[in-house]
């Protein structure tokens, strides 16, 4: 039986080329202009799972984009691993900031990726990480050492908040029955220090519209006498944080679980260089909630951020105008036990209340989801840690992430199983940004580590 290291070594060019083909399809779920490309990507994923050796592969229709489902059931007495990933990607804009076209993948060396990284939208989030599972599965089939049952559920709407997944999961509980869910859609500390993501933040996302006068006005004739919705919106937004960068919405922190001093001390042990962090972002200083470290601010604390703001005249030159309307998109990252719907309601009530009489405010909720924290004393976590220890030579560090995968909380609720987040990306991989990339090392190391998870998980399952 061939070991995984030599299998990866012999097949790495093909593995990279197959991923590059997948990355060429612009599967942008947020933009209907790419509708056919998203569907084509589902087909490509289906085909790859068939080729890798799944017995049953299906394109499952949903009210939105289809979910690719596949399985290989070898023995009902053995455990079942459910692999989740997504084949859709974020929009590529601002496109002019890409050094090479987002859907024409190229391999280039970077400081952190001396062996090269694949530059393309979706390289790391999540096509590259999802495809590692397909190739790891291929290895286990080819070498006849798949130790347990496997199911794949690869969706095409993660980047728009998984609107159909809830529908699908609730209708297919039996089909999706599993012992553990395995996901590679997060990151790790560095290529020398792997980590396992033990927490994800929740999300409440809203759009606000502030309306002043019923039409755009001459800013000389009316300026100073009526509310300018852009001025007002900015004042309202600014008031949402106090001088310590605490969020001022009444009740916002009521359900936040504070970490104990011990837990915070444990967190602080993870390797982190503030200097390197600042250098990587070209900033002179960090900024955030008083009383918390950078790593705490971006993982265990809730936030409120404007993601986009617009209104008025933004064309060439100067136009003197008081606009009728101003808009902003605002996200709040949540932590246990904040409830997204409750937080959205608190935001709406507060934002409406602080608006001056001179304007009207409309708040429209977008998607949301609960935060998730996994314990580390379960066999899924232990198996993952054994796998990393073997492939990287050092144990993994548990680490809570600031990002969100809202359906993970849903999986726990509906399927009653834990998700193990074995992410292989780096923070510097620029997911959602121009020049997204994924290290060739990370891609191949992921393929190498995943079969070890299956092996150790099945062993620990049998012992328990
Ligand atoms: N894969 C990311 C989430 C992620 C990345 C978590 C890195 C931890 C580390 C996922 O595709 C994503 O972008 N999620 C969105 C939320 C979604 C509702 C659009 C996010 O976190 O903004
Ligand atoms: Mn993702
Ligand atoms: Mn994403």
Series of secondary-structure elements, N-terminal to C-terminal? HHEEEEEHEHEEEEHHHHEEEHEEHEHEEH
Shape: globular
Count every helix, treating DSSP H or I runs of 4 or more residues as helices: 12
Q: Which strand order spans the largest sheet, edge to edge or round the barrel?
A: 1-2-6-3-7-17
Beta content comes to: 15-25%
What's the helical proportion of residues? 25-40%
Distance between the termini: 27 Å
Main sheet: strands, sense, barrel: 6 strands, mixed
List how many beta strands DSSP finds: 18
Structural class: alpha+beta
Q: List the ligand species.
A: ligand BES, manganese (II) ion
Low-pLDDT regions: none
C-alpha Rg, in Å? 24 Å
Average pLDDT works out at 97
Q: How is this structure best described in words?
A:
By secondary structure, this protein is α+β, with helices and mostly antiparallel strands. The protein is 33% helix and 21% strand. The chain is built from twelve helices and 18 strands. It has helices at residues 4-23, 35-52, 127-142, 165-171, 229-238, 261-268, 274-281, 294-297, 340-353, 379-392, 407-415, 440-463; strands at residues 56-60, 67-72, 80-86, 106-108, 117-119, 149-155, 180-183, 195-200, 202-211, 217-218, 303-311, 321-322, 325-334, 360-369, 372-373, 397-400, 419-421, 437-439. Strand 1 (56-60) and strand 2 form a beta hairpin. Helix 3 packs across helix 12 (440-463). The longest helix has 24 residues, at 440-463. It is globular and about 80 Å long. The chain starts with a helix and ends with a helix. The chain binds ligand BES and manganese (II) ion (MN) (2 copies). Ligand BES is lined by residues 125-126, 158-159, 161, 185-187, 200, 203, 367, 401, 403-406, 431.
